[in-house]
Write a structure and sequence with these properties.
The protein is mainly α and about 260 residues long. The chain contains 13 helices and no strands. The protein has two domains: about 1-35; about 45-260, Orthogonal Bundle (MetI-like fold). Helix 10 (about 180-205) crosses helix 11. The two termini are about 30 Å apart.
């Protein structure tokens, strides 16, 4: 009874086994509600898995998946480099307005900017990459600026007492000292690129992609295929997110140790 009471008490910790059982039980309930209590318009789980099998037998399905995955990964890599350059340059007062302008640009709509990007780039692939990079960079820069602004002043003073120059302080405290947080924020912003795939691949369908396939199925109201593609996108996104988490543990193991100590 005490264990059951803990589940409905705030700020209680539970074991991994209890958490797994909770997820399993709630998943079963959700699946049952989906099967028996939803609208007849919404496809049932069996219909969705059947549609997924049919999609898997088409020759272009896995090619579209690979195309979309490569597009997202390429955009994330460019975003990482561009955003770090903007934020690290902001340690100089001259470049701080630029960083703030990029950060505030997150309120702009891609629908209105797509025409400008079309004129600025040379092809459909470059257009999709530029839209994804813009969509991620404005949020990524905002998060990185918050990380830099939250660095305690005593870390800068400590670095100066070690005889480092001002550029050395920036290198040790801002760049190397927060690179693990920058990678974790990149992992979180990757979901933005993955979510935007349907938008950008709908603007330029020349290369195909899972987003273009999803829009084609939605246009013909093949809802079972739409749900099957959505579940595929959802599953691949979770896998890629976990992969980025493993890469963070591999390259920056001290970040995990710090979290455990705290």
């Amino acid at each position: 009874m005490n264990d059951l009471a803990h589940l409905f008490s705030p700020s209680r910790t539970i074991t991994k086994r209890t958490f797994f059982l909770l997820c399993l039980g709630q998943g079963i309930v959700a699946l049952a509600l989906w099967t028996f209590a939803t609208s007849p318009v919404v496809p049932k789980p069996l219909d969705i898995f059947r549609a997924l099998g049919e999609l898997g037998r088409t020759p272009d399905f896995f090619t579209d998946l690979a195309t979309s995955t490569w597009l997202a990964c390429q955009s994330v890599a460019i975003t990482f480099v561009v955003s770090l350059l903007i934020v690290y340059a902001a340690v100089l007062p001259f470049f701080r307005p630029l960083a703030q302008i990029v950060s505030k640009s997150r309120f702009l709509s891609l629908v209105g900017l797509s025409f400008m990007f079309t004129l600025a780039v040379s092809g459909g692939h470059e257009l999709k990459v530029s839209l994804l990079v813009f969509g991620m960079t404005v949020f990524y820069v905002t998060s990185l600026l918050d990380v830099v602004d939250s660095i305690p002043r005593h870390e800068f003073h400590h670095a100066r007492t070690l005889g480092l120059s001002e550029w050395g302080v920036v290198r040790e405290v801002v760049v190397l000292g927060r690179i693990d947080q920058a990678f974790e924020l990149l992992r979180q912003n990757f979901a933005i690129a993955w979510m935007m795939l349907t938008l950008v691949e709908g603007i330029s369908r020349a290369e195909g992609g899972i987003g273009a396939l999803l829009l084609n199925q939605n246009k013909h109201l093949r809802l079972d295929s739409v749900f099957a593609i959505q579940l595929t996108i959802f599953a691949i996104g979770i896998v890629l997110d976990a992969l980025l988490g493993l890469l963070r543990r591999f390259f920056f193991p001290y970040s995990v140790l710090t979290k455990v100590v705290r």
